[in-house]
Amino acid sequence: MKVWAISDLHLSYKENRALLLELPDFADDWLIVAGDIGEKLEYHRFAWQELSKHFAKIIWTPGNHDLWTMPHSTDGKGQHKYASLIKIAREYGVITPEDPFCKITIAEQTYCIVPLFTLYDYSFRPNDVPAAKALDWAHEARIYSNDENYLLSSPFSSVPNWARARFKIAEERLGALPPDLQLIVVTHYPLLSELCRLYRIPRYSIWCGSKITESWIKRYNISIAISGHMHMRATDYRLGVRFEEVSLGYPRDWRKGRPLKSYLRQILPADSSNITGATMWRP
Ligand SMILES: [Fe+2]
Ligand SMILES: [Fe+2]
């Protein structure tokens, strides 16, 4: 039995939907999906319909694209859209950030898988840029995000305010867990700003996470942190934590002819061929 992870399936692209249809069966294995399935509710139904055929259990957390409200969409916005995504996931038995955490024992070690719904608060920026100037700082370099148009935060007044509410919930849940229980934390955004690899567009970092989550590495017993969003597959080690960026991404981010199975990251048992240093996983 194994635990796998992937994120950023971006099923609005027909090439990505075709890739999903070719996935083989994984019997008793579990799958973690770290956000960005797609903008429409129908993509979520499609994902869960296909993935639930092949895996014994699926654990999911949303990404920014899942929460987008496209023009003329009737899928809802903000918290309402999130609630609709939760409802659809549950119809297929998928574990969401609103459900009790689940435990798994592999090689006599028990882990708790902790999917958390987090957002960004523009704090992944240099210290000398004030919070109120964060967007200006990105725009000065002609860096924009479609989140500003489509990620609607209602009933919260802004995405950072929604983010702060979610961080509070996440920290309460993390803090209630036994301190010796090994955790596999699943978020769409990287927990550390240094893992935002944005070589061409560094100021995009403000839409990629929050400094609030950086302290979680020391405060909670996290063994493995799984995330997506960067479309830059990687394995890193920091302070004894294994960080796995598990994106598939847009069609330009993966190699044609390679099956989706080859983009699933083995989380447990740990892949013994990759136990030290950082690995960038190329297409
Ligand atoms: Fe993505
Ligand atoms: Fe994303």
Explain the overall architecture:
- The chain is of the alpha/beta class and 283 residues long.
- It has one domain (3-273): 4-Layer Sandwich (Purple Acid Phosphatase, chain A, domain 2).
- 25% of the residues lie in helices and 18% in strands.
- The protein has helices at 14-21, 41-54, 64-67, 78-91, 134-140, 147-150, 159-175, 216-219; strands spanning 3-6, 30-33, 57-60, 102-106, 109-115, 182-186, 222-227, 234-238, 241-245, 265-268, 279-280.
- Strands 4-5-6-7-9-8-11 form a seven-stranded mixed β-sheet.
- The longest helix has 17 residues, at 159-175.
Task: Kindly state the number of beta strands.
Answer: 11
CATH superfamily: Metallo-dependent phosphatases
Spatial gap, N to C terminus: 26 Å
Helix content: 25-40%
CATH class: Alpha Beta
Supply database-style keywords.
283 residues, alpha/beta, Purple Acid Phosphatase, chain A, domain 2, seven-stranded mixed β-sheet, four-stranded mixed β-sheet, 8 helices, 18% strand, binds fe (ii) ion
Give a brief description:
The protein has 283 residues and is an alpha/beta fold.
Topology (SSEs and partners):
Blueprint: E1 3-6, H1 14-21, E2 30-33, H2 41-54, E3 57-60, H3 64-67, H4 78-91, E4 102-106, E5 109-115, H5 134-140, H6 147-150, H7 159-175, E6 182-186, H8 216-219, E7 222-227, E8 234-238, E9 241-245, E10 265-268, E11 279-280
Helix pairs in contact: 2-4
One fe (ii) ion binds next to helix 3.
